[in-house]
Amino acid sequence: MPTMADVARSAGVSVATVSHVLNGTRPVLPHTRQAVLDAVEQLGYTPNGLARSLVTSRTRSIGLAVSAISNPYFTEILHGVESCALEHGYSLLLADPHDDPEHERTVVQLLHERRVDGVIIAPSAQPDALVAYLTRHRLPAVFLDRLLPAGAGGQDGLPAFDQICADGTEPTARLVGHLAGLGHRRIGLVAGLPGWSTTAERLDGYRQGLAAAGLPWDERLVVHGDSSAAGAERATEELLSRAAPPTALITANNAMTIGALRALRERGLSVPADMALCCFDDFDWADLFTPQLTAIAQPGRELGAGAVRLLLDRLDAPDRPARTVRLPCSFVHRTSCGCPTPPEKGTDS
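The chain above was modelled as a monomer; its predicted structure follows.
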């Protein structure tokens, strides 16, 4: 089996230079780096990960803790995390916290015990135990998709951890404005799980959209579907049972869109003839529905890759101030909103 010394002889460099190229511990001239990589390829050299971790105090592994991995949105995030991690020479360990605060802390502890260099987490609605664990053990972490409550684990209202998420307020306001522009005056919202920042932002966007359209706030038009299909089915049925039900509906994530559609079908109502529908979260098969779903598309892969880059920056500079990064969403105009024909497939208009 070839050794690092064999690679050094083949490339005409020192063993230390080979180590710097493979571990990224010091800049190396491009032609020297390429000579080392060519020698690695020709000899079929495989670095000893355990030995390297003992030298560098890193395992070049990242823990990812997200719930509902089967959700198409989180699948896109996973692809983004994995591809960016591999690009930088990191492996990925995956855990599902099930959106349970206690289990969340447990799985992060297990990842930590596997000596991951840092973790990327989509936090639960009650992340206090998790934040306490991360703070106590100084484990590098990036919060993904859902932001921590203001000042959680930090000082003076500033975040203690790096965070990355999509903007939820303006896109939701845009959905309300679009439906209001089509003449709807009673626009219902199936909101997500209370306690999540995504739920709060989309609810805030709904309020802003109503105000911009000159429509009154009516709490009877807002129900929480708890970010699940079953919860949204119950919530939509509740809205439909009102004395004055909505004529248009916004669902705040893709799972709740499925639940809302089931409730409408059970009532024998069609979209958009009986109920206009817009949803937050686009997914690959949204255009296969009849009618096709008008949706807000989140940049899942970009969020995943951005979380990895934030974590690697944190590993390189542990004491720098924490950052919160927000990425824009896009409006995918189809026909479930009641427009007879969208401008062009996939346009943001």
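The chain is about 45% helix and 15% strand.
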